[in-house]
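Please check our next protein.
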Amino acid sequence: MEMSNPPRSLESGVASDLPPQSIMPSPVFNHTPEVRSRRAALTTVLMLRDSGTVKDQLPPFSCLTVFLLLLSSVFGFAQDNPGVFRSDVKSNLSTAEVTLRPPAVSAVNGKLGYDGGLLNSAESHNLEGSISFPIGRQFGFQADGLYSRTSGLDFYGGAGHLFWRNPETGLLGLAGGYLGRDGVETFQVGAEGEWYLRRFTFGFFAGVGSIKYAGTVPFISTNPTRFVGRVSADYYPLDDLRLGVSYTSAFHENLVKGEVEYQTPVRGLALTAGVAGGDNGYDHWLFGVRYYFGGQKSLRDRHRQDDPRGLMPQILHGLGVYGAEFNRKANQYLAAHPEFDFGVGQTVLIELNRKINGDRIRPGVMPPLPPTEITPQSQ
């Protein structure tokens, strides 16, 4: 009596004599690509066995079984994961990651603002504007412009920012700007950054600045080039309310500022206020209004998704705090040298200041001296 062959395990590469239903994977696991591939290969093998075409050819059939199982598994896995077998998969994964990240600048946007009050004890009116646009997805550019009418003098300037930003993390970039009028000019250039932490934004600027007056005087440098640095912290107790504080060191002068900005229910319209105090009696009190061009979003999102902090106020205030030192030292020198003349044709102005201010140069003028060549002369 011929004995039936015992069941053969799948691990040996040979199919079992058990019915196909008894060796099929549980339907619970049929959703995985590997199981589907293996099941298809196994079904093929069992059909061949039942047809008798491979009877009594176990070694060759074992190799064929292994080959079919491997081929079917690879084919099924490739169908479910087509990117694995592409040469540019690493690039695609990196591109996908960047695509999922919010853009550095959400869209072309801008802002226009005015503030006025007292700057270095002189009346000041400032008109500032910015426009920002994306460069690719990870980078952006912003252009700033400023017109300031301070102490009866007109100042014009502009700045640019080139930056990388992830709106969920922070910003890193380069910024530089220029401000001037007849007789004085100043610039600042450096690196800037921001770090976003929930309702806080921490910022910095580190670079170099220069001021150049038209002439020279014996009591202070009229062409200083020195370090400029700023650290800041903004807090958003509400999505449309920003409370900010910053410390700036510019031209060996110290300046501390506090700011408040509130975006009203009127789309894009915000109210601003700023106060500052620095060395040599410098201070400013400025109140204004700002309008944002762009989509409807909260103030916090505007600051993180659209335009970064403008550079022109920092340049203007840096010139102002150095002008405060200029005024203080000029007054001291004038008291010690009453015969001193600040240049040809300027004696009348100095005499007028003496009569009005009691031998004090009127504060707030930036620069405090006229733009003509400044040389000590005897009357």
Remarks:
- The first helix runs from residue 20 to 23.
- The chain has two domains: 10-100, 109-324.
